[in-house]
Amino acid sequence: MDKSVLEKAKKRSVEVTFNADVAEGLPWKFTPTQKKVTVTPGETVLAFYTAENKSSSPITGVATYNVQPGKAGQYFNKIQCFCFEEQRLRAKEKVDMPVFFYLDPEFASDRGMEDVNSLVLSYTFFQSEDFDGDEYDEARDWNERGEGEGGVKLHGGGGGGADGKKKEVFVTR
Q: Has residue 73 got a pLDDT over 50?
């Protein structure tokens, strides 16, 4: 990367404000753990959101996101995000969900971004229609019976792989 791009990036700071919404009908409480953070383009940032299932049943949700102003979205890069996978919360469960991101250093050199001093990162959780919970419950029961050493079941969203089949991975420790 051009040295002048990195120098410009070091001199620039941008305030990122976090927003959280839940779609109608999803009985979750979803909030950003921090309201805002000031970042330098090129610097990695770890932020958290908290989700709580207020119902007496397990529910799977999936999050969508957007960045405002829209023209800055091309420079926003997520390294790791809870929005990459469906999230399964047990009844009354409360969890912290990380998002690890950075603004591309090129942001500071783009004349079209000169008027952008703040961004809003907004997530909305929706109830997932793809997941009925049986696979999760079977894996948990399998582990509770002592037939496994514990693990995490990961569920991909939507149509899955190139063959159109849903992909699932069960990771054991």
A: yes
